[in-house]
# Entry
Amino acid sequence: MTKNLVIFTSSFPYWTPTESSFIMPELDALRNKFDNIIIVPERASGTICNYTESLQGITVDDSMSRLPYSRHRLLKASHLLNRKVMSLTLSDLSTYSNINQLASGLSFNINAVCFAGCIERLMKRHALRPDNTLFYTFWFDHITSALALLCDKLPLNIITRVHGVDLYDFRVTYRSAKLRDFTMSRLLKVYCASDTARRYLIERHPSHSAKTVMSHLGSPALLTDLPTPAGNGNDITFFSCSRIAAEKRVHLNYRLIRALAISRPDMNFRWTHIGTGDKLASLINEVTHQCPANLSVTIESDRIDNENVHQFYHDNRVDWFMLMSETEGGVPVSICEAMSHGVPVIAASSGAIPEIVDSSTGLLLSHDPDDNEFLTAINRFIGGRETAGTLRVNARERWRNSFNSQQLRDSFASEISQLLP
# Structure
């Protein structure tokens, strides 16, 4: 029997720095297990770039992104009095703490109902049958709930992944526990990007523990033929890549490295960050006015393609990768990438980060490290190249054994293909 897979994304294959690095490593594995694959982005901006080979044989249906209420939020107001929207919203009435939560819950419900109709039309357009089609949402969001609502009409086979913002309740204004529980009741599997995420979800929805499983994303072996070389004892290079946003705390990277440079005027330090975001201007301002002479800082806000990150590791000497995120739902792909190149990691202990960073692969700091904690930890390795070298070997082996995306995605594709009869 022909097996069909429909993947719902936020924007992919339209270019986004984060989602593309999550999904691209998965496509080859999925293509080997399914006869037809359709990718459905909710939003489409810009062009489909650099994905020609990866998308070969895959259909992109951007009809959802062209819906008037996808592009103009005010048009969703016509659904305010929809019977299902009203029912979902009123059932949670006692759980709204303020008007903002009510508005957030109402918006989510409108989205779920609107897109349920869109998905039903998509099935007719592609002549998809419920018995041989697997519906896969890359994010556990309103599209997942839309599919769950459709189960009242059609016996759909649905799975979802869950990461960070779609996992933690404190990352959003409001999330209906009742609707999420209903949605999970209609899913075959919920694939969490870390064991930390899995435990968090099970704690809140224990009745669905059997279908809530872990599936790391990992990172691919790109330009990893040789580990990134370490430097000499008097010249230390730090690297980081992420959105420059409040939750990523990129400013903390700089402040810790700056404290190190001030404490060691006999040494030279370099820090390169690849990424952009709403905190870029304030970061540049801080670096411009407070940078010591022995610290060189480069912020590359225009090279945020995932391929450029791997190219940077390949072309440059990197001693340490840094990530100070306030929260992480899954094991960060950026850490997996660093370790694939044999680069040890300095990270704050948040979310799932302790699942990959420990004393054998880098420096796991507290959730809110100060200068003294960072300086005490890293000074053990400055000048001790043999010890740092051991971290490099261990980091690469950790990636090879547990976070190589080719192995992880092959296993994932094989498993989900068997969910269809």
